[in-house]
Write a structure and sequence with these properties.
Two copies of one chain form a homodimer. By secondary structure, chain A is α/β, with parallel strands linked by helices. The first copy, chain A, folds into two domains: 205 residues, Medium-chain alcohol dehydrogenases, catalytic domain (Quinone Oxidoreductase, Chain A, domain 1); 146 residues, Rossmann fold (3-Layer(aba) Sandwich), CATH 3.40.50. In chain A, 28% of the residues lie in helices and 23% in strands. Chain A has twelve helices and 17 strands. In chain A, the strands form three sheets. In chain A, strands 3, 5, 6, 7, 8, 16 and 17 form a seven-stranded mixed sheet that branches. Chain A has a six-stranded parallel sheet with strand order 11-10-9-12-13-15, with helices on both faces. A three-stranded antiparallel sheet of chain A has the order 2-1-4. In chain A, strand 9, helix 7 and strand 10 form a beta-alpha-beta unit. Chain A is globular and about 65 Å long. The N terminus of chain A is likely disordered. Strand 14 of chain A pairs antiparallel with strand 14 of chain B, so a sheet runs across the interface.
Chain lengths: 362, 362
């Protein structure tokens, strides 16, 4: 498997030119237990937990003992081969994560063993016990931060933050509407909007436990929470009460749940699609475009997490982690021991009903 | 019917307070032959050609002997009662039109009998031989302008102009894609884009005569014209040849024809919907929003033809009419004598297959 590990994380020529005999302290990483896939396919069948041998820690590398890494839909979409940006195969799964610095290369400054760090920008291969990457991929985080939050703050909370900021000039007192409100992005939208005095109208699926889900979202600051069936009324806006018609909507479901978001939007409003959990397209009437003058667009986090924006991105992550440490931003996660990875993956894939975000604890 | 005419064009109190006995020259209009509807419903059954008696020409009024007025889809949508902005009933049909000034009220300056004028901003009631409206509704037009062009330049050519200008900062060498390319807007898009060095990719329906339609559009300046069935290929972009991927698309059809426009658009492109001839919604995949970062929005001319924008709007109309007089902008119309109105309406409603824009000649 040594070859595999080199192929995944190092250019191939390193394999052909082994380092000289000058062994430095910490020049090699510990062996790593990793979730590997060699072909694209169903994530639960193509992923295997394997042992990878130690690899060289070069001058600018940092070796991190991972503490937490989430399973996001984009992770298993990469494994399925349906995500547009994918690592070459074979590859170790995972894209977000946080851990403790184990050792650093000779040219690394500002990071020391024991520091809490997160992968930033996110980068492939976080589902393993020890990750070696160039120092530019590691962002030092305040030690008071729970590792599972540092491991999960990029893909979902940052999406929520940017979606609230980037499309409509919202003011205190305005409203947004979203479906999939129990998702991690959904929970963050509620809290980040609330911090700015923005109301949220939240749509969730009809399912056992939806009353409990409503209560939880209201505790996070949701103004209104409806199940889809509650919105089977002639004019959904009659339900708004004192909440103003929303100018901005978020859709992570598609199909009828997207139509509900469109129905709530005010004239000239914008719906941002950032996911498609129902695997159904968005359908829009001609009159919604012409007479209601709605705009539909999409959010893709990639533009915020590319290397050109690393500093800007880290400032936003620090802001979000600050809110987390102050107790102003929180979200549901289920922490799962690494040796139960495949159960967590099954939960994440929806095989065991609705589940909170699955986060591997190493 | 006198009552009807007063109700349509004058506040009701004029009926209760008849003018004094001081009769001035031209103080009353000629009687008018008009297409009237008293209820909403199928346009071919609820419209009747009636004689309306003379009405008073007040100090600021202008009485125009109409020369030409088109039948636009929005006209029969108003009659059907499905258009959001509709005149009170009973009403005379029509919204655009041009004619010759017959007489003017005592306070009217700058307009004289014999002048060629168009209704601007467009205003209800142009389907009749004599129209009396406040002077603010009449825009004087160069006498070298064919009346049928002055009568039709607002709803469709102005839409084409604004759609090219308002959504994407197009540069010479860029491309746009549109369906419904044989429509009046479609023909104008081709020519107005060409004037700016912008390529057009045009999609038309499969039907008898589509080869002829292609040839006509190419003569207007179309770079590429495809029938929908020709686009039943794996990758429509392989057909582009030297034309760049379009950044902007126009949809006036909906359904599959809208999907074809989306397929041609480049990453980050925008599709503007301005009609729905197929009466089918627009369906968009989640990945089109997220990974292709497409934006979908709508165009509604109303914002350009409201009274606040009259001067700005008239400048644009003069520009378009100038192009028309120079032979740089033209479009298909079928001129129909007023006494064949119901045949023209049937053609406009699509009962007799595909037909050019129907324009009543009085």
């Amino acid at each position: 498997m040594a070859c595999v590990r080199f192929l995944t994380f190092k250019p191939f020529h390193h394999l052909l030119r082994p380092t000289s005999g000058q062994i430095r302290a910490f020049s090699m990483s510990p062996p790593s237990t990793a979730v590997l896939y060699e072909t694209h396919g169903p994530p639960d069948t193509v992923t295997k937990v394997v042992q990878l041998p130690p690899i060289e820690i070069k001058a600018n590398d940092v070796c991190v003992k991972m503490l937490a890494a989430p399973i996001n839909p984009s992770d298993y979409n990469r494994i399925q081969g349906v995500y547009p940006v994918r690592p070459p195969l074979p590859a170790v799964g995972g894209y977000e994560g946080a851990g403790e610095v184990h050792s650093v290369g000779s040219a690394v400054e500002g990071l020391s063993p024991g520091d809490l760090v997160m992968v930033s920008p996110p980068s492939t291969g976080t589902w393993q016990t020890h990750v070696v990457k160039d120092k530019s991929f590691w962002h030092k985080v305040d030690k008071g931060t729970p590792a599972e939050y540092a491991a999960t703050v990029t893909i979902n909370p940052l999406s929520a933050l940017r979606m609230i900021e980037d499309y409509v000039n919202l003011k205190s007192g305005d409203a947004v509407v979203q479906n999939g409100a129990t998702s991690m992005v959904g929970q963050c939208v509620i809290q980040l909007a609330k911090l700015r005095g923005i109301h949220t109208i939240n749509i969730i699926r009809d399912r056992a436990g939806s009353d409990l889900a409503k209560e939880k979202l209201k505790k996070l600051g949701a103004d209104e929470v409806y199940t889809e069936s509650q919105l089977n009324v002639k004019n959904v806006k009659s339900l708004l009460g004192n909440v103003p018609e929303p100018t901005l909507g978020f859709n992570c479901v598609g199909g009828d749940a997207a139509t509900l978001v469109l129905k709530f939007l005010r004239h000239g409003g914008t719906m941002v699609t950032y996911g498609g959990m129902a695997k159904k397209p968005v359908t829009v009437s001609t009159s919604s475009f012409i007479f209601k003058e709605l705009t539909l667009t999409g959010f893709y986090l990639q533009k915020w997490i590319n290397p050109d924006k690393t500093e800007e991105c880290r400032e936003m992550l620090d802001y979000l982690l600050g809110l987390i440490r102050e107790g102003k931003l929180k979200y549901d996660m289920e922490l799962v021991p690494f040796n139960e990875f495949h159960t967590a993956l099954d939960k994440s894939l929806g095989k065991l009903g609705s589940q909170p975000k699955q986060v591997i604890k190493f």
